[in-house]
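for the writeup, i need someone to sanity check this before i put it in the appendix. the sequnce is what the collaborator sent (i think, or maybe the updated version? ugh). structure was predicted straight from it, no edits. if anything looks off just tell me and ill rerun, i have time this weekend
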Amino acid sequence: MKKRVLFIIDGYPCLSQTYKENEIKYASLSYEIVVASFGSSPAKYRSHHPYLPITSTDDLKKIIREFQPDIIHGHYFHNLPLLDMASRMAGGAPFTIRTHSYDLINIPPERLKELATYSKSSRCYGIICFPFLRSLLTQAGVPESAIVADFPVVDYSRFYDRSQNGSYVFNTGAMIPKKDIASYAIIARLQTSKRFLYCPVGHNNSSCERNFSELNSRLGSPVDLIANVEPYDMPKLYKSCEWLVYTANSSLATVGWPMAIAEAQASGCGVLMQNIRPDIQDYIGGAGFVFNEITEAVDILSSPYPSELRELGFKLAKRSDIRVNIQKLFRLWEK
């Protein structure tokens, strides 16, 4: 009989958070899954797992009473108190959590220490984090034994394609301050030999969206905005492009390890990302470039993406293959 796992997440389904979908998809092959979500996303996608809305604690109690979960799982470090509460509602069912970047980077140390107390419970079976954030968690007080380092969860098999790529340059992600989309428009204005695309994923900051539109217009509209793309159509977009240029605000430096990097590598795209922290190069792993100044990005894009880096990208993207990496989560659930 399969174990029952209750996913308690927020804002599901959201175009900019398909890591949740990937996790649910592969977990449902081995476990009986129920997804419950607080709130909703302004940028939903069509093909998603069924879910139950949570609007109150009573809703959560009802779901737990009817489903009787063996395991509770969620996302984001700040949701540890919620998972702990749900665990107690479920008679002490163990819980696990996958952290990301915005929920850890630049969070006040005292707040992290407060949240870390929940990780010391015998009911907390593990905290999954990006490798570069392990030390931050241990400094906050999370037991080393509770931490499992992992790469972003990417559906590698869906993106892996060795066929010839197209010629476009593109960027993707929510239009929010940490993404520094303005720099992308300037790069596009200076690098006139290529066509630049930007694929927002909804969940945009209205001010950033307005500022980008005005800047792009003043620059002569060098970036073509394309409509939101359903997750299962994204591989086609990657294959139409030679380069992924991923901009990030170097002052905020809160962008983590974007799934788009591994997806682009698996698709045969060149990778160029803003060099906001040393760990970014660890993630790219030599299968791509980083840039500090806009002029560097313009120069790099002037040349074809090296075939040897493309080949290395196919290999390194496998570090994020959820079909393999989800076993780390399963081992926690089978303790």
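The domain at 156-318 is CATH 3.40.50.2000 (Rossmann fold). Residues 206-218 form the longest helix (13 residues).
thx in advance!!
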